[in-house]
Automatic annotation (TrEMBL):
Name the record gives this protein: D-3-phosphoglycerate dehydrogenase
Pathway in which the depicted protein is active: Amino-acid biosynthesis; L-serine biosynthesis; L-serine from 3-phospho-D-glycerate: step 1/3
Reaction equations catalysed: (2R)-3-phosphoglycerate + NAD(+) = 3-phosphooxypyruvate + NADH + H(+); (R)-2-hydroxyglutarate + NAD(+) = 2-oxoglutarate + NADH + H(+)
Domain (ACT): residue spans on this chain: 318-388
Amino acid sequence: MFKIQTLNNISRNGLDRLPANLYSVANEVAAPDAVLVRSADMHKAPIAASVKAIARAGAGTNNIPVAEMSARGVPVFNAPGANANAVKELVVAGMLLAARNIADALGFVRGLDASGDLHHKVEAEKKRFVGTELAGKTLGVVGLGAIGVKVANAAYALGMRVIGFDPHMTVDGAWQLSAEVAKAGSLAELFAASDYLTFHVPLNDKTRGAFGTQALELVRPGVVLLNFAREGIVDAAALRKGLADGRIGRYVSDFPEADLLGDARVISLPHLGASTGEAEENCALMVVDQLRDFLEHGNVRNSVNFPETRMARTGSARICIANSNRPNMIGQLSHVLGEAGVNIAQMHNASRGELAYSLIDVDSPVPDSLVAAIAAIDGILSVRVIGN
Ligand SMILES: NC(=O)C1=CN([C@@H]2O[C@H](COP(=O)(O)OP(=O)(O)OC[C@H]3O[C@@H](n4cnc5c(N)ncnc54)[C@H](O)[C@@H]3O)[C@@H](O)[C@H]2O)C=CC1
Ligand SMILES: O=C(O)CCC(=O)C(=O)O
């Protein structure tokens, strides 16, 4: 029986794919085998030694201590692209909210006194909410991954000019991107050309503060800045300076900030990008399937720290081993198996950066002494036996 701990609400349709005879699922679990999480901050509490995998039902994994998990030989999975459409639609809504003063106008109508001549009040005041159109404006998209590509294509379909910047764009992403989206040679070029600017990059040491004081000097006065990626992507000081001197016309964000809550130029949403029934279900289905494949067969799909590794099962048992990616690890493993008289039926080894992962199917049961001997090899991060 595998014990799964959920740290956030995970779509029921996803959880239903965990058969009750094999899995128990709860919020509070002693010694869980795996954790299912959305946005809960896993940096804040120690992660139990029993955890063999973490599955993020979403895209960003900055709430998970990925480097620490790699050092423990624990894969972290996510659901690439599974919520991208939901985020795209909210980004489009965000551009429209900013362009047409929709939030202010809604506030005005909600505050109207229902008595008297409503029609007159509406017609007299509507000039306060005159907006602009998106068509003909330029949108700069930083990060052309699952979300950025969809946002770029949608904006083009709305009549916007679109330019994008992503030095690591994938071939798949390029296939999906409209040929009408122009490539910016640099971030500076993109900043200078954009009326609307949107970021769709992961938060990491390279992207933290990607919109900072330098960007502020380059952007068009009154630029509409959209941040549906992560709070840290936009530097706090640069944002406040830009709002104060009017360089930033509007800030539309999925991450409310305490001191900006009352600022009329700031439109904040409560991290709603992926909050649609469809996206929540897509993410849950994807990560639950990946988690099952890992726990039951050791296979790895869509991990952010492990290499893709899949092998059909043969033999009586499977040994799953994560180790430091250095010479002679396979040699030592096969030596230890040979010493124990265990024959390798088939094996698959793959590496990613500093980590390597092997699936070894064997013809006979794996004794505890062999597991201990493998774990004792210098550089082994984790060992697990399935189907013994
Ligand atoms: N508001 C919300 O509810 C949601 C927010 N997100 C955030 O959006 C981010 C992006 O999500 P996806 O598009 O699904 O991820 P993705 O991994 O498909 O795309 C990210 C893209 O950013 C690019 N990139 C990385 N560093 C870059 C840099 N320095 N400059 C330019 N491009 C760079 C990558 O090459 C990649 O193409 C997530 O990491 C997450 O933080 C994702 C889903 C929901
Ligand atoms: O699960 C959520 O609602 C947050 C989604 C998100 O931010 C992500 O997928 O990176």
